[in-house]
């Protein structure tokens, strides 16, 4: 099946959202585009936007490739996405609250009990634990793919510590710097207010015992973390302190930050550390990254952790397959955004189908991420398919399978010139005690290798600026 081209109709007509950009591209010489691409790479190197790939034998930090041609969404397309994202995140929050509370979703037979209790991200310490303002997922990254003019699918829900927003912001800045003449032709909804919206969200979820001006910090594992650039970038843009575990301590169930002027109470921690490492007294005792006693302060309601502990129970790929039913159960509404059709290998009939059709399916580990631990049947060798067949038979509960989607394409500037490449989109949804905030667009990730469907940066993917037309 041919992929949906987001810029050009099958008869060669340019879609209206891309009309001005297509006209400019038709007259821009290749030398100019190459020069701008080189300028963009130089800018990113100077800024220091890098990431590390765990397991890379060289241990070198890399630039995420940046494609200079923006992706464009019409206002009406974005409005549909926005409504669907708000609905989905509301349901995610209600589901997590229920999982750690009354578990009505289990009693009603909507989600199997073992998917909760056997989930490695389930935290029994959170059972019966209330969180400030009943918000668990304050920052969500919902991965979206498009297959035709009207159909957007949710590919994945990231409800723990979604990353990538710094690239969204830097991509826009670089695009505006390199292509002012193109930007001037469009009315583009801004994204630079994301950090203002994030700070407002974080302050809104402070414990009720906090002062009128709550203290917010960003907790990082440290400079050797693969996403440390983003941690420092966001702390700087938010105007808050970036701290490591050793910079905080707990006394009388209250978290304090060490400062040159003495201890200062902390009300909200935007943590970029996994649950396991947050508190050596509650989770992994060998963790040197967390804060001893942090969970005691959290349970007492004296500090807010963003996102809440245990949110991973909602973002594995098996639970994902139940999200349409979860939306209906908690909201009494039909999902605005649909899932990719998904086969649960835990079910005998589905497993039999998957084993018979491995060559045409995408098979994913339930707890996998980053493009690892998956099989793309049409692009796999016979040996890889045989290996996955054995894995499925041995441990079917650990996998789901989906059809190989013809992800939509956008024009990209690659070595051979302007060519289509497959893309996805990660919008960032902020949920505070007062409202839901979503800046228009998000992070578009692009599979820069010809024919590839894997957009993850760790697998050779890149990013591009995402424009939502503000009209």
Automatic annotation (TrEMBL):
Residues 70-447 form the Circularly permuted ATP-grasp type domain. Pfam families: CP_ATPgrasp_2 (PF14403). It comes from the Bacteria. This is Circularly permuted ATP-grasp type 2 domain-containing protein. It comes from Labrys okinawensis.
């Amino acid at each position: 099946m041919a992929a949906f081209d987001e810029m050009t109709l099958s008869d060669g007509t340019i879609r209206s959202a891309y009309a001005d950009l297509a006209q400019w591209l038709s007259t821009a010489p290749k030398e100019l585009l190459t020069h701008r691409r080189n300028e963009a790479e130089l800018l990113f190197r100077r800024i220091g936007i890098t990431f590390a790939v765990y397991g890379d034998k060289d241990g070198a930090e890399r630039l995420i490739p940046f494609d200079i041609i923006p992706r464009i969404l019409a206002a009406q397309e974005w409005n549909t996405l926005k409504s669907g994202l708000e609905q989905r995140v509301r349901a995610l929050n209600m589901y997590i609250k229920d999982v750690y509370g009354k578990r009505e979703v289990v009693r009603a037979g909507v989600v199997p009990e073992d998917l909760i209790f056997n989930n490695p991200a389930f935290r029994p310490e959170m059972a019966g634990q209330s969180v400030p303002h009943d918000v668990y997922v304050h920052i969500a990254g919902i991965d979206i793919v498009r297959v035709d003019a009207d159909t957007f699918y949710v590919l994945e829900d990231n409800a723990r510590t979604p990353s990538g927003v710094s690239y969204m912001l830097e991509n826009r800045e670089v695009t505006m710097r390199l292509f002012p003449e193109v930007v001037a032709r469009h009315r583009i909804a801004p994204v630079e207010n994301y950090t203002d919206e994030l700070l407002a969200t974080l302050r809104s979820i402070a414990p009720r015992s906090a002062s009128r001006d709550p203290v917010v910090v960003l907790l990082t594992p440290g400079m050797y973390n693969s996403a440390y650039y983003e941690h420092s970038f966001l702390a700087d843009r938010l105007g808050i302190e970036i701290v490591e575990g050793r910079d905080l301590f707990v006394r009388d169930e209250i978290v304090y930050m060490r400062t040159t002027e003495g201890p200062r109470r902390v009300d909200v921690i935007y943590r970029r550390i996994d649950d396991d490492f947050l508190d050596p007294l509650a989770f992994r005792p060998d963790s040197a990254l967390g804060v001893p006693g942090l969970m005691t302060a959290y349970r007492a309601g004296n500090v807010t952790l963003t996102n809440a502990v245990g949110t991973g129970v909602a973002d594995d790929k098996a639970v994902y397959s139940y999200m349409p039913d979860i939306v209906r159960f908690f909201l009494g509404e039909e999902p605005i955004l649909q899932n990719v059709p998904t086969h649960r290998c835990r079910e005998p009939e589905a497993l039999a189908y998957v084993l018979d059709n491995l060559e045409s399916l995408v098979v994913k580990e339930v707890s996998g991420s980053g493009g690892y631990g998956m099989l793309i049947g049409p692009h796999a060798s016979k040996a890889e398919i045989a290996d996955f067949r054995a894995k499925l038979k041995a441990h079917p509960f650990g996998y789901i399978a989906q059809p190989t989607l013809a992800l939509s394409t956008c024009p990209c500037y690659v070595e051979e010139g302007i060519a289509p490449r497959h893309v996805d989109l990660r919008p960032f949804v902020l949920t505070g005690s007062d409202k839901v905030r979503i800046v228009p667009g998000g992070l578009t990730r692009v599979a820069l290798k010809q024919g590839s469907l894997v957009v993850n940066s760790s697998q050779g993917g890149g990013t591009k600026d995402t424009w939502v037309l503000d009209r």
